[in-house]
Structures are given as structure tokens and as C-alpha cells.
Design brief:
260 residues, alpha/beta, Beta-carbonic Anhydrase, Chain A, five-stranded mixed β-sheet, 11 helices, 5 strands
């Protein structure tokens, strides 16, 4: 009897230890994440969304557990109300780490947020998601053409990253005039964001080069719900270009990290 009780107690203790020391949650590969995002968008467009991970059980889980064990994608997109990120990809709570800013530009704050998503939330994929009819891209396009309108004092430094993208789109499409250039400029702005990120973030460059994370570009069509995925080969070309740029950031970690 006594030995049975001891064995039962030992079994319970071992079970508790096994639960306490469960192995680190394994994330899907970058390609598996992309397949999941693409499948979610197909469901959304087809009116067959499953709305995963949106019940009370997931809320309770979110209150107790670490998002880094669950989130599988970091997505930076525009603040536009027509771009409901979780719905677009039929995702739920603790599925995607979302960064939103007008024009989906990538400056210091956005690059830092992306670094957190990739290196600390451990998402295997970053999506830089532009969208059709983007007001920020349209405003910069009009300003480049000399038809801009007055803007509040904080908006020009917010969207100045978009100007090189617009100018490249104009140079590459001389037959297009006025706002007809906006779709091309929107795509160029996605590439500009990726280049700006690689220039600012050695940590992101390293994660991509080591195959631990993948950066992809995409355009969301606000009138159809479809996501157009841009060529991954272009991302590789941008990364190679940045590696040869003398002005790229080279210090991956902040000075004095760990003191705060």
C-alpha cells in the first residue's frame, strides 16, 4: 500500500515536471506560413472564412500565454480602414503581429516594430502589404506632379519615404500621366519599404540570410479582397543591393541593451 502511494506520488511529480519543461513550440516554416496566408485570403474572397481562434477559449489563452508561441506572421500595412488585416487572411487572436502606418512606410518606429515581430515574437514571415487606392501614395504622386494640397505639419515627414517610389514609377512608365501612375507607384512603394527596412535593420537582413525569416511584398485590392503576391526574387535582389550599400546600418543591437 505504502509503495503504491509512493509510486503514485512519483508519477504525479514526473508528470508535473514534464508539463513544466515542455519543449519550445515549433513554428511553421516560412513557406508553410505563406501557404496558410494565401489559403486564408482565398477563403476570405470566396466568402468561406472560418474565423479561427476568435472564441472565448482563445481569449483565455491569450491572457495566460505568450504570443511568441503562436503568432506566425508579422504584417506591416496601411492604416486605411479598408484593409482589415486579420479578416483578409482569415486569421484570429495571436495569429498575426500587425503594424499599421499611413502609406505602409518603414522608418525607425516601424523597423523597430518589425524587428520585435521577427526576433522576439519569432514570426517566420514578414509581409509588406500595400493596397490599391492608397491615399498616401496618391497624395505624394500629386505633390510630385506639382498638384499637391496643404498638409498638416507632421504628414510630410511621415510620407517622404514614398517620394522615391513615385519617381521611379514615373520614370518606368513615361506613357502614364497624373493619377494613372498610382498603381505602379503603389507597388514601387512596397519595394521601397523593403529596401528601407533592410537599410535600417541588420537584424532583419541576418534573419533572412540565415533562412529563419522570409520577407515578401503584396498588394491588397480593396474592391475585391484579393491579395496579389509580388515576386520573391525582387526581395532577394533588393537585399543584395543593400548589402553593397555603404550607408546601410551595420550595428544590429542597441547600445546598452539589457539595462532597461
Amino acid at each position: 500500500m505504502k509503495s503504491t502511494a509512493i509510486l503514485l506520488l512519483l508519477s504525479l511529480l514526473l508528470t508535473g515536471l514534464a508539463l513544466a519543461s515542455s519543449p519550445e513550440v515549433k513554428k511553421p516554416s516560412p513557406d508553410e506560413v505563406l501557404a496558410s496566408l494565401k489559403a486564408g485570403n482565398i477563403r476570405f474572397v470566396g466568402g468561406k472564412s472560418q474565423h479561427p481562434h476568435t472564441d472565448s477559449a482563445r481569449l483565455i489563452q491569450a491572457g495566460k500565454e505568450n504570443q511568441a508561441d503562436y503568432a506566425y506572421a508579422t504584417i506591416i500595412t496601411c492604416s486605411d480602414s479598408r484593409v482589415p488585416v486579420e479578416r483578409i487572411f482569415d486569421a484570429g487572436i495571436m495569429d498575426v503581429f500587425v503594424i499599421r502606418v499611413a502609406g505602409n512606410v518603414i522608418d525607425t518606429d516601424e523597423a523597430g516594430s518589425i524587428e520585435y515581430g521577427l526576433a522576439h515574437v519569432n514570426t517566420p514571415v514578414l509581409v509588406v502589404l500595400g493596397h490599391t487606392q492608397c491615399g498616401a501614395v496618391t497624395a505624394v504622386t500629386q505633390a510630385v506632379h506639382g498638384h499637391g494640397h496643404p498638409l498638416e505639419c507632421n504628414i510630410p515627414p511621415l510620407v517622404d519615404n514614398i517620394e522615391p517610389a513615385v519617381k521611379r514609377a514615373i520614370a518606368a512608365n513615361p506613357a502614364l500621366e497624373g493619377d494613372a501612375i498610382v498603381p505602379a507607384a503603389t507597388e514601387e512603394n512596397v519595394w521601397q519599404g523593403i529596401e528601407d527596412l533592410f537599410m535600417r535593420s541588420p537584424a532583419t537582413r541576418t534573419l533572412v540570410q540565415e533562412g529563419k525569416a522570409k520577407v515578401v511584398g503584396a498588394i491588397y485590392e480593396v474592391g475585391t479582397g484579393k491579395v496579389q503576391w509580388l515576386p520573391e526574387s525582387k526581395v532577394a535582389a533588393i537585399l543584395a543591393k543593400v548589402e553593397g550599400a555603404p550607408k546601410k546600418a551595420t550595428q544590429a543591437m542597441a547600445g546598452g541593451h539589457g539595462k532597461h
